[in-house]
Amino acid sequence: MSLLENGYDSFAESLAYVERAATDPTRWKFAVLNLVHAVELLLKQRLLNEHELLIWQDVDRPGKLTVGLERAIPRLLSARVGIDAADKQAIETAIRWRNKITHYEVDLVLEEVRENYLLIFEFLDKFHGAHFAGSLSDHIPDEHVQTAMDMAESFRREFIVFRGREMHRMWARRLVAAQRVQVLVLAGVEVSRTPWGQEKWWAADYMEGRAPADFCRDCAAALGEQHGPGCVLEECPNCEGQLITCECDWDDSDYWALWGDEYTDENEPLDGEPSADEAARTNG
């Protein structure tokens, strides 16, 4: 079985887990893992199509380890295979969620998992259409076609372009809402959050003088803005570790409420966009 055929099998298995997740939400993690595996196999097949040596980690010693997702991006760019910023974002999202599910004991927020699944799903469909013959839908077993159609429709309905990148509309609104929370509280003491670009690790020797990008690659916070909820790059202002995984015993805060799927404020305006109430008054 070829890499491509294996990829189709993993994609079909992913859709099957999406269907099972309707009654057992824990199946979402297996849906994500199978989808990410499908992405990895299609990227390897594209590298193989370019040159048979490109799928190996060490092109001078082929036959041992193949490239993983982390190395696939620079390898594809070196081969001048079209990878745009949205593609790179989707691949990085796939890597992050695979690692999150595989290597960390974390509580997965159902809606967050689903939203990231949609982003990776859309990339897989787009990448297949750009680099392989036919449509990805041609390789979906009949019993899973409706699920795939529902996923595609959900992406078109729920995702927007915000600050030059595709993201779920609620991610963007959570980021805006997060700007209202400038401090966290630890044992009754207020501690200022660390904005993007002001993390202590930028001054570390291993950063070799690198400067932060204009926008956080995970949550899209601009320089000087607070990170969005759940951002993997937000620094804990107490222990200076990763806030999402640190063990500091923070007090209750409005910020933590933004992390869960209970936050559904569609009225949160984005970058000059009128709120739903404002738009209604204008249209009225």
TrEMBL record:
Residues 264-284 are annotated as: Disordered. Residues 264-276 have a biased composition (Acidic residues). This is DUF4145 domain-containing protein. It comes from Gordonia liuliyuniae.
